[in-house]
Specification:
Helix content is 39%, strand content 18%. It has 935 residues and is α+β, with helices and mostly antiparallel strands. Helix 9 crosses helix 15 and helix 25 crosses helix 28.
Length: 935
């Protein structure tokens, strides 16, 4: 996949494909007794193309280094461990004699693991003679899951599906990375699969041509994605000479020139051991991993050093501006000032300034521009500091077009104010605490740990740079922050990048027409308080974190058609003020401790969540309870939230996926809660009043309708007392009647709806009625059928193999969209407008195939194994465990219902799967969107 990491906020870890980059370096001095100097010499231009010389004067407990006999055998063909270093946290860094770097971290909190390999000197800035073609990205598509000299791609897919592995890859500006997440017992298989792909890709010509079609469709779809367009436009504006100006995916006319033999050439020269960083994290044995990796790379020698020489980006000497029009109703704005590279000491002050300006609701710009003045729908800042060129400090905003000028003016006032006045001690302390907390919160999963290790090492030469980075931030002063603001926030080098709505009459007319139309780590304790509130408490000591959640049955289950969005509105108001606290005091407290408070609403519940370090549990729990007992719904905040909700409604049609999902909901029968759009409509949100929310608040947050979970590094006895103190006093509701889940989801006939849009992409959504999660046997059989047809956890199954395999779609998915109320089985595909009709026909063909029972024994077996293995890898964080157990109890299954998961799915038979296909795949709903009239 083409990864465009728009760095709105500086964070330490990549979080999924929408992650942010880690561009930091440090010269660190320790105390007089134990001195560790990390001295790196950067001799490259690109972010992941440096070679670092790390001189380590050994510090007790910090780093240990060993050199074996293999150092004397460098001339031999046998691959051995050349050097080895160990770090706190059971981290080992080894370098093999052929140049391969191996990083292993043991983490035995859950029986899961992740295996990944990053390839340096790839990515769009490093493509040399192929610059502009996106050849790194094309190669990623061919290598990821593609045939090797040992196995066909079908054999690889089947093998991974068998143990429920999740595999993917991404390409960025300066690296390509591949990974497989798996149960720990299958880690050796995953190591072998990644190693095979990194050395022995078969380059089947048919696979190359297929992926070329897929990549071209991805490029076309990306042109309708505002975030990708904004990222591309920003890079093109900020960089005139640097290859960072070139899109990761390349230019279409250049991409089309890529030949089969060229990707083979690129693979042979760039996918060499000395460019590869192999990372394994999880419930593993370091010695076994190192032995296996060393054995798998036998016979693969070190390659030529091939760090490309990148052109220097000349200093900017005048303002720049770039604007594009896109379908939509809001304006996206980026304001950016050139700053520094990763190596510059101003890095740290810039990062903290970004957090002071926009991290959290109590930050300067968010509080002022988003809430107090309602100038923007969203605002954020980031300090982007790569190594290939000077980076930039950016402000990103989404605004209504009529507020654009005022928002830009106010944003610049905030930046320029940092030049004139010192940040306060409280602001600086809060930003530093947020960064420290971020380090802990970003280490909950093996995936986060692995990505952090890899990126730290590639950026700085040490896998534990994140700790060093946070320590360095603690030394920054208010005067240093003011100094960087003065130095870089200069009007004469301001860059303004905008995406504005199209203004053509036909677009406006179309809008007007449409407007009409877990891993067990301890026992879970369950009790019911005297007022009827159910409570789950669980001690998990892996990290010093605590997750507190409250769920109340509500959402679309309680809202009527005229009340659509009421639950979302209520959730957004819960932290906007209580009888004893203002909204600003609430958000300031959580920002100051680096914690989080959040309220949200979905189809079935309204929830509240605080996520904090363990020392902050008591205060955080008190504030959460206060919001649920004493919210005051101040009129000023009410109007601010309403403005934001109306803006989000207006923006819905800017996103093709959100647009078709709203059409889907609008077309469903009114007897189902899935007919309601959770975020509401203009006609439902506009007339809503504080009195409406107050009445709903009193109705829903009663003990008999709620469940509370407290999971993490806690003392169970003290926690139960804390819960009783703050939640046991909520009065029970008189004559309480449980919410009914008996809704009708039957489609009365075959329904078809098409919308012509201004977007050059085609979407197809095909839906059938599906059982609720309370229909245990039918639901389990439907999930197995879903896995057969569309994969489990990631794209796969019949649809992916056929439609993606033939290059008909960029993406195709299937999901059973259901809950305690019966829902729908939804198939979704994104393609080019001219292929919508053919993709629709293929979807129907596969539905008929399922009804005919044309499922092989192997397909059935693999589908069940995938479901079981994916489930075994889930629920590894305290928050995930709390959610599963809490909702199971709330929905009436019992908090330990998940323990029956394996048995429920193991008992599903082939006959039951075919039966649910025949039972539910009857009347359908077909929704399509494209820039063409319906054919």
């Amino acid at each position: 996949m083409d990864w465009n990491p728009f760095p709105w906020k500086k964070i330490l870890f990549y979080r999924g494909m929408g992650g942010k980059t880690i561009d930091k370096a440090v010269f660190l001095g320790y105390n007089k007794e134990y001195v560790v100097y990390f001295i790196y010499l950067v001799i490259r231009k690109g972010l992941f193309m440096s070679r670092y010389i790390l001189l380590v004067l050994l510090s007790v407990g910090m780093v240990s280094t060993s050199f074996g006999e293999s150092d004397l055998d460098m001339g031999k063909d046998e691959v051995k461990v050349a050097s080895r270093e160990t770090y706190p946290g059971e981290i080992t860094l080894a370098k093999l004699t052929n140049g391969l770097t191996v990083i292993v971290q043991e983490n035995h909190t859950a029986p899961v693991a992740t295996v990944r390999c990053a390839v340096k000197n790839t990515g769009s800035i490093n493509e040399g003679k192929y610059l502009g073609s996106g050849i790194s990205h094309v190669l990623e598509h061919v290598v990821s899951g593609g045939s090797t000299t040992k196995r066909s791609e079908d054999e690889i897919r089947t093998l991974i599906d068998t143990f429920g592995g999740m595999t993917n890859a991404y390409t960025s500006l300066d690296v390509t990375s591949y990974y497989i997440d798996c149960p720990a017992k299958n880690v050796e298989t995953c190591i072998e699969l990644i190693a095979d792909a990194m050395q022995h890709c078969a380059f089947e010509e048919s696979e190359f041509h297929r992926e070329m079609e897929v990549v071209q469709q991805e490029l076309a779809d990306g042109q309708e994605n505002r975030q990708r367009v904004l990222w591309k436009l920003a890079q093109e504006t900020m960089y005139q000479e640097s290859p960072a100006r070139i899109p990761i995916i390349g230019y279409l006319n250049v991409l089309r020139q890529v030949q089969h033999d060229q990707i083979i050439d690129f693979y042979k020269t760039r996918y060499v051991p000395n460019n590869q960083i192999f990372v394994v994290v999880g419930d593993v044995d370091t010695e076994k991993v190192l032995r296996q990796v060393t054995e798998l790379w036998q016979g693969t020698p070190r390659g030529f050093e091939n760090t490309p020489v990148l052109p220097q980006e000349p200093p900017q000497i005048a303002p720049r501006e770039a604007t594009v029009e896109m379908d939509g109703s809001t304006t996206d704005i980026l304001l950016a000032f050139p700053t520094v590279t990763l190596q510059h000491p101003d890095l740290y002050a810039l990062d903290l300034l970004s957090y002071i300006l926009s991290e959290g609701q109590s930050s300067r710009m968010v509080r002022d521009m988003q809430y107090d003045q309602s100038l923007v729908l969203s605002v954020g800042t980031s300090s982007y500091t790569p190594t290939y060129a000077n980076g930039y400090f950016a402000v990103k905003m989404v605004v209504s077009p009529e507020k654009e000028k005022e928002a830009v003016k106010r944003a610049l006032e905030h930046l320029y104010d940092a030049k004139e006045t010192l940040v306060t001690d409280a602001e600086l302390a809060k930003a530093k605490k947020q960064k420290a907390a971020e380090l802990v919160f970003g280490r909950q999963t093996v995936q986060q740990m692995a990505e952090g290790l890899a990126q730290s090492y590639m950026s700085t030469g040490t896998p534990v740079f994140d700790e060093i980075y946070v320590e360095s931030l603690q030394r920054v002063t208010a005067e240093e922050i003011q100094a960087v603001a003065k130095k870089y926030f200069r009007p004469e080098v301001l860059n303004v990048v905008k995406i504005v709505p199209r203004q053509e009459a036909e677009v406006a007319a179309a809008r007007q027409e449409d407007a009409r139309e877990w891993a067990e780590k301890g026992a879970t304790h369950f009790l019911t308080l005297e007022n009827g509130l159910r409570v789950l408490v669980k001690r998990v000591e892996h990290l010093p974190l605590v997750d507190v959640k409250v769920y109340a049955l509500g959402g679309n289950l309680r809202d009527s058609e005229k009340q659509a969005g009421r639950s979302a509105f209520l959730a957004a108001m819960l932290d906007k003020g209580t009888k004893t606290r203002t909204a600003e005091e609430i958000v300031h407290y959580f920002d100051s401790i680096g914690g989080m408070i959040a309220f949200s609403a979905g189809r079935n519940t309204i929830s509240g969540n605080v996520f904090v370090l363990k020392e902050d549990l008591a205060s955080a729990t008190e504030i959460l309870a206060d919001c649920l007992k004493n919210a005051t719904f101040p009129e000023e905040k009410f109007q601010q939230v309403k403005t934001l909700m109306l803006g989000a409604i207006a923006r819905r049609n800017d996103n093709p996926q959100a647009e078709i999902m709203e059409l889907f909901a609008d077309t469903l029968p009114k007897t189902t809660p899935y007919h309601l759009v959770s975020g509401g409509k203009l006609a439902t949100i506009e007339p809503m009043s504080t009195a409406d929310l107050q009445a709903y608040y009193q109705e829903i947050f009663v003990p008999q309708n709620m469940i509370l979970t407290v999971y993490g590094d806690i003392d169970e006895t003290q926690t139960l007392e804390l819960v009783k103190k703050h939640f046991g006093t909520i009065p029970a509701a008189k004559d309480f009647e449980p919410l009914s889940f008996d809704f009708v989801n039957t489609l009365p006939a075959n329904l078809v709806r098409h919308k012509q849009t201004g977007k050059n992409t085609g979407l197809v959504l095909l839906a059938y009625a599906a059982p609720s999660i309370r229909d245990k046997e039918d639901y389990a059989a439907m999930k197995v059928l879903e896995a057969v047809m569309a994969g489990c956890g990631y794209p796969g199954g019949w649809l992916h193999e056929e439609l993606r395999g033939e290059g008909l779609v960029y993406a195709v998915h299937g999901v059973t969209l259901s809950g305690p109320a019966p829902g729908y089985m939804v198939f979704f595909a994104q393609t080019s407008p001219d292929k919508v009709e053919e993709v629709t026909r293929r979807l129907f063909q596969n539905v008929e195939k399922a009804k005919a029972g044309n499922i092989t024994a192997d397909e059935f077996r693999v589908a069940k194994e995938m479901i079981l293995a994916m489930h075994a890898q889930g629920n590894t964080t305290v928050g995930e465990q709390a959610t599963v157990q809490g909702l199971d109890e709330l929905y009436g299954f019992g908090y330990d219902y998940d323990k029956t998961f394996d048995a429920r799915y193991e008992n599903v038979t082939m006959e039951e799967v075919v039966a649910v296909a025949k039972k539910y795949f009857t009347n359908h709903l077909l929704v399509t969107t494209s820039n063409r009239e319906k054919q």
